[in-house]
Amino acid sequence: MLALSVVIPVYNAAKTIESLCNTLIDLYSARFDLEIVLVNDYSRDSSDLICRRLHESYPQIITYIKLARNFGEHNAVMAGLNSASGELCVVMDDDFQNPPEEIGRLVEEIEKGYDVVYSDYAVKNDSMLRNMGSMVNDRMANIILHKPADLYLSSFKIMNRFLVSEIIRYTGPDPYIDAIILRSTANIGRLSVRHDERMHGRSGYTFTKLVSLWGNMVVSYSLIPLRIIGILGTVLAVYGVYMGADVVFDAFIPSYGELTDLETLTSVTAFFRGVQMLAISVVGEYIGRIYLALSRDPQFVVRERLSARRRSEAVMLRSVAGTVAEEIRAQSNE
Which CATH number is 216's domain given? Predict the structure, then answer.
């Protein structure tokens, strides 16, 4: 039986998470060796209590991870991926906007040989702010991450074990799952699925969080800002040379025109500022690469973990117990 893990980052989802887990279990527990990994990203409602109850109700299916503080969606997903053990792993939201019924179609699509299959939406039932933020994020990813223009980086996706193993090798403090995927594989599929309205509450993605996500993409997964500073420094240095040439022409060709003290000062300061910015950019290029490689701030801190005993593990334990029992009986007969 195919082992399927479903990772769900949970944040203030007390009204939806129990119904979502029950739906997943009803749909897929007979079809797959199902594992559901709930990662509570420091919810402020009763999500913790409900997730504990779910683990007690389904101890062979549900793993519950409680984080010590709010680390953000991508960090919570990383915590879940580090615990997921399935051959295939689905990542989905906790609010029913990703229909559980579509998981079966994602499984069928990834079995065609893809490393990851992203869901795509003909219609997105999000707020205008969220849709605008997604559009900006998509355009930035095209430039910064060299994402294919026709690929939408949805949070609802399915990955194989090879890709999950590559993703969790990343140990930097600010993981951006899609960036890691894009630099790990080009074997990417896409599938058009439904996108439903939120059943309760509103999106946790505020404008501030969207800006933070963009900043993380730009700074943590590219050196574009440093290169822009280098280009600007080069332009200012060229401008300083041009203004310096004016000073030289004024000194040797009086008819060329007399520069004011302000223009002379501007030419000198522009040149040296340009050289300084260029030098900072070059040094920053190396520092940026060292930062990307050596940063070791924690991605997440697990306060508590309630692990599920997978169905396959239970079968194996029963098999071992049966073998031991048979050996004991054989020895007693002797």
Answer: 3.90.550.10
pTM, entire model: 0.74
Q: How far is CA 231 from CA 85, 105, 124, 243, 268, in A?
A: 46, 47, 39, 18, 19
Of residues 39 and 323, the one with the higher pLDDT is 39
Q: What whole-number distance in Å separates Cα of residue 88 and Cα of residue 108?
A: 11
Dist. CA 144–CA 202, nearest whole Å: 29
CB 295 within 8 A of CB 220: no
SS3 17: helix
Residue 220 has pLDDT above 60, yes or no: yes
Has residue 129 been placed in a domain? yes
Place of tokens 């769900």: 8
Structural domain for 278, as ranges: 224-294
Shared-domain flag, residues 233 and 181: no
**Confidence band of 330 (pLDDT split at 50, 70, 90):** low
